[in-house]
Design goal:
This protein has 13 helices and 14 strands. It is an alpha/beta fold. The radius of gyration is 25 Å and the shape is elongated. The two termini are 26 Å apart.
Length: 394
């Protein structure tokens, strides 16, 4: 496990009999390629980039866990082709992120960052100009997945009006109101908060034109992904006074470790809150993430369950007593199940249970059968030309 994953994960693995190596830092690709050769499970957070070249070295690698929400740091298509399911924690830190959004809405509205810095510098500026209550203001949420609805509920509890936009149809929470386009959100909102994944469609989705659409004197909050906002355009909008402030927790380029320096065009601008990617960095969230992801990884290793995997067919089969379980990942081409069933038939095995699910590239088979012939079946299935990975659970 890399990048200082919470101790709750290591405790869960050790309790289940795993040998655990926990590192506090991320690994570069060359370092990861060496390390991944010797592990069955790899755990990372957001810094380590798991590339196709690294995955190709993971001959013993069974599964991979992202101890965070995002999975864009992993080549998911490559992991799929190598038969490696990837798990993440889509829910565990959502409350922490939502609370920080609300804190920043209030902090921006009251210019708390500037006032605090001034007092630390020995300046006394007791002012009310440009400072407002958030009650009655409109919060626009872009992306209404796991975090957006929680932000909306918290905002409504403070008397804010909440509007949201998502590319998919979403059930509103409370009195949150759906809007038909991003433009509507930008034009209507006093505060705009972004909660979208990193995709080609979201890259620089908030640029010069979008910032110009925002209400004069409004605020932008980004705790999603650093590539979503054109930072130079945002800095210009703040310098001209079109925006009254911004809070940014994620950046297009971020230091690899805490000791590295950091530069941004947003530094030094008034009423701008800059934080080092800490949206989900609370003790509660990290402990929950450690528990959630480790549970998924252990369950996959011990039973083959892929429920919750982001790049794999979803399957979970209850295992009966007295049988061995064979787990097979193969290329999704016609005739594979026929070939496997032929192998089973030739050895006279009794299949207790069998489940197959596929996606565009791979098939994943879980098969429980008599223990006395399981090793022969595993060997012959692994020898098929369509095989990617085959293992047996005793």
């Amino acid at each position: 496990m890399l990048e200082n994953v919470h101790a709750s994960a290591a405790e869960a693995f050790r309790h289940d009999g795993f040998q655990v190596e926990a590192l506090t830092t991320a690994l570069r690709e060359d370092e990861l390629k060496r390390k991944i050769q010797d592990v069955h499970i790899l755990g990372i957070r957001s810094k380590t980039q798991v590339t196709d070249a690294a995955l190709a070295e993971g001959k013993r690698l069974l599964t991979l866990g992202c101890f965070c929400i995002g999975t864009n740091q992993v080549d998911l298509a490559s992991a799929n082709r190598h038969g490696v399911p990837v798990f993440n924690a889509p829910f565990s830190n959502t409350r922490s992120v939502a609370e920080l959004v609300i804190a920043e809405v209030i902090a921006l509205s009251r210019q708390l960052g500037d006032r605090s810095r001034e007092v630390h510098e020995g300046k006394w500026r007791k002012v009310a100009t440009g400072c407002n209550e958030v009650r009655g203001k409109t919060l626009g949420i872009v992306g209404y997945g796991h975090i957006g609805p929680q932000v909306g509920v918290l905002a409504e509890s403070m008397g804010m009006r909440v509007a949201f936009f998502d590319i998919g149809t979403k059930l509103p929470m409370g009195n949150n109101g759906s809007r038909r386009s991003l433009a509507e959100i930008l034009e209507e909102s006093d505060f705009v908060t972004l909660h979208v994944p990193e995709t080609p469609q979201t890259k620089n989705m908030i640029g010069k034109a979008e910032l110009a659409r925002m209400k004069p004197g409004s605020y932008l909050i980004n705790l999603s992904r650093g590539t979503v906002v054109d930072i130079d355009a945002l800095a210009d909008a703040l310098r001209t006074g079109h925006l009254a402030g911004a809070a940014v927790d994620v950046f297009p380029e971020e230091p690899e470790s805490n000791g590295d320096g950091f530069k941004s065009p947003l530094q030094g601008l008034p009423n701008v809150i800059l934080t080092p990617h800490i949206g989900g960095s609370t003790s509660e969230a990290q402990a929950s993430i450690g528990s959630e992801v480790s549970t998924s990884l252990i369950k996959f290793v011990n039973s083959g369950a892929t429920t919750g995997a982001v790049n794999f067919p979803q399957m979970e089969l209850v295992q009966g007593s007295g049988a061995h379980r064979i787990l097979n990942v193969h290329r999704n081409v016609p005739g594979v199940l026929r070939d496997i069933n032929r192998i089973v038939s030739e050895v006279g095995a009794n299949i207790r249970a069998q489940m197959l699910a596929t996606d565009a590239h791979i098939g994943y088979l879980i098969m429980d059968l008599d223990s006395d012939v399981s090793e022969v079946v595993r060997r012959d299935v692994a020898a098929l030309s369509t095989n990617i990975r085959t293992r047996i659970l005793y």
